[in-house]
Amino acid sequence: MFRLQGSKVLAVDLTGDAVKAKNGSMVAYDGEMAFKRLTGGGEGLRGVVSRRLTGERMTVMEVRGQGTCWFADRAAEINLVRLHGDRLRVESENFLAAEAGLRTGTDFTGVRGAAQGNGLFTTTLEGHGQAAILSDGPAVVLRVSDRYPLTVDPGAYVAHQGDLRQTFQSGVTYRTFLGEGGGEAFQIRFEGDGLVYVQPSERRTIAGDL
Amino acid sequence: MTIPANPGAGPVVHDPLTLPGDDNVDEYTFCVELKGNPWFLQKGKMIAYYGTVAFNGIGHGPLEPLVRGSFHSPLHASDWVVAEGSGKMLLADRAFDVNSYDLDEGNLTIRSGNLLAFQPSLTLKQSIVPGFLTLLGTGRFVAASNGPVVFMEPPLRVDPRALVGWADCPSPCHHYDHGYLSGVLGGLRALTGLGGASGEEHQLEFTGAGTVLLQSSEELLPERPVGGAPE
Question: PANTHER family given for it (chain A) (predicted)?
Answer without folding.
Answer: ALTERED INHERITANCE OF MITOCHONDRIA PROTEIN 24, MITOCHONDRIAL (PTHR38074:SF1)
